[in-house]
Design goal:
The protein is α/β, with parallel strands linked by helices and 499 residues long. It folds into two domains: 4-206, Rossmann fold, CATH 3.40.50.300; 215-392 and 445-477, Rossmann fold (3-Layer(aba) Sandwich). The chain is 32% helix and 14% strand. The chain is built from 15 helices and 15 strands. The strands form three sheets. It has a seven-stranded parallel beta sheet with strand order 3-4-2-5-6-1-7, sandwiched between helices. Strands 8-13-12-9-11-10 form a six-stranded parallel beta sheet, with helices on both faces. Strands 14-15 form a two-stranded antiparallel sheet. Strand 10, helix 12 (276-287) and strand 11 form a beta-alpha-beta unit. Helix 2 (27-37) packs parallel to helix 3. The protein is globular, with a radius of gyration of 23 Å.
């Protein structure tokens, strides 16, 4: 059996490995660490939550400990500030017994502490492209001494339009370097980037481009105006640990969070309108259990490493199959099990089919037999639906705002969103996977699955007259199965982007 001792790591790093509770290397770590230690360029393709960060941090630290050259010797480029902070914390934890120093570079905060860190000298930079390019052009960051370059979450960087800034940064880095590229998917754009930046790279794939096998999936068809009511029912009648809820926009996240709180759950929000201190406070509170529910946009789809997340709930379906992979990858991490629930309105069926093609099998549909799907929309709900339709129409247009590429001002404290004028790359390739049957279910009911595509089935009826809601124990049925199952008993547990 492979263990971390077999990699011949520095004893100080092994101490950090033990202290952090690592025991057996994950598949991506077992495959990537020996290759990275050999000095080869490497492409690592694996799902989120499989240990990619340690797979490049450990060999990077090992190499840096082998010599005492001054200046910045390792550069990690990553798409979001949350991911940058997560990597930075991993470096500090695993390298605690060494004198190696790291610093984070990203927008949305004052550049002055970053400038001081760059002037003082750090061996490792963990950076988002926009702000790093600002520092390069202002002569604060000097990268000619970089020996190891890591492009982390490369697919997300391309999806956010960061290819031109990344290419500009690579011009400042010595070509005599080792390059490690990690991604959850491997689209043609990633292959072209690898061809441009790497020398005879070794490629390893673990799990391919589909959600981890530790995650069970279920769709909950529901009229759009009843999404919030169905969500509250699921939260109240499902045994969970921490729950991460995704919405399409930051405005919807802010509207939904008070409803979750009024239902008795401890809740926080995370989206691009939050300051960096607010983001870090929300993530810390979510990690330590002060909040059991986080309502977030896709800013949280990468960079949140909270092993206690038992459920990811897509209040709004994501806009691509790749985004679905990264959202649901927040649960079922480190070989733990998790559940992914997606609330789907009739207009979401096209994306459902896209996700199912990527997964290679239909996702089970579930209905709650005790939930009233026939209630008509109230005037406020109708207004909300009109607003959502307006947001959906706006989101389908090319984005021309939210840039973190270098601006004419010396520093613009903006988040690392897609640079203005850079179009989204072409759609990613999809790979077919093996069927992952649903594993866990709402605690007071049972689930059964069937494989009929959504277009072949009527949606839950949207009758015109509201009926009284039954508060019986949760009873869940597949849409094709009319057999009611006896409920389980369980105790209630408090529940706790960048758009």
């Amino acid at each position: 059996m492979i263990n971390f001792e077999s990699f011949n790591l520095d004893p100080r790093l092994l101490t950090g490995v033990v202290r952090e509770g690592y025991t057996t290397p994950t598949p991506i770590q077992a495959a990537a660490i020996p290759l990275a230690l050999s000095g080869a360029d490497l492409i690592g393709i694996a799902q989120t939550g499989t240990g990619k960060t340690a797979a490049f941090v450990l060999p990077m630290l090992q190499k840096l400990l082998g010599s005492q050259t001054s200046g910045t010797r390792a550069l990690i480029i990553t798409p979001t500030r949350e991911l940058a902070e997560q990597i930075h914390e991993t470096i500090k934890a695993l390298g605690a017994g060494t004198k190696l120093k790291s610093a984070t570079i990203y927008g949305g905060v004052s550049p002055l502490p970053q400038i001081r860190a760059l002037r003082a000298g750090v061996e490792i930079l963990v950076a988002c492209p926009g702000r790093l390019l600002d520092h390069i052009r202002q002569k604060h960051a000097k990268l000619r001494g970089v020996e190891i370059l890591v492009l982390d979450e490369a697919d997300r960087m391309l999806d956010m339009g960061f290819l031109p800034p990344v290419q500009d940064i690579l011009k400042e880095v010595s070509s005599n370097r080792q390059t490690l590229l990690f991604s959850a998917t491997f689209a043609p754009e990633i292959a072209r980037l690898a061809d441009q930046t790497m020398k005879n790279p070794q490629r390893i794939e673990v799990g391919l481009s589909r959600p981890a096998h530790t995650v069970s999936h279920a769709l909950f068809p529901v009229p759009a105006h009843l999404k919030s009511s169905l969500l509250m029912t699921l939260l109240s009648r499902t045994t969970t640990e921490s729950v991460l809820i995704f919405t399409r926009t930051k405005h919807r996240a802010e509207r939904l969070a008070p409803q979750v709180e009024q239902a008795g759950h401890k809740v926080t929000t995370l989206h691009s309108n939050k300051s960096q201190s607010q983001r870090q406070s929300a993530i810390k509170g979510f990690k330590d259990g002060r909040y059991q529910v986080m309502v977030a946009t896709d800013v949280a789809a990468r960079g949140i490493d909270v092993t206690s997340i038992s459920h990811v709930i897509n209040y709004d379906i994501p806009n691509s199959a790749d985004a679905y992979i990264h959202r649901v990858g927040r649960t079922g991490r480190a070989e733990k099990t998790g559940d992914a629930f997606t609330l789907v309105a009739p207009e979401d069926m096209g994306m459902v089919r896209t996700i199912e093609r990527m997964m290679g099998h239909p996702i089970p549909r579930q209905i709650l037999s005790s939930f009233d799907y026939t209630t008509s929309a109230t005037p406020s709900q109708a207004a909300e639906l009109r607003q959502q339709e307006s947001e959906r129409n706006r989101s389908s247009r090319p984005s021309r705002s939210h840039t973190s590429a270098p601006s004419r001002s010396r520093f613009k404290p903006a988040g690392d969103a897609r640079p203005a004028g850079h179009a989204r790359p072409a759609g990613h390739a999809t790979l077919r996977g093996q069927r992952t049957p649903p594993r866990s279910l709402p605690s007071q009911g049972t689930l059964s699955s069937q494989g009929t595509l959504p277009s072949e089935r009527p949606f839950p009826s949207q009758g015109k007259s509201p009926s009284s809601r039954q508060h019986a124990p949760l009873d869940v049925r597949s849409q094709a199965d009319g057999n009611r199952h006896k409920p389980h008993t369980s105790s209630h547990t408090d529940k706790d982007g960048n758009r």
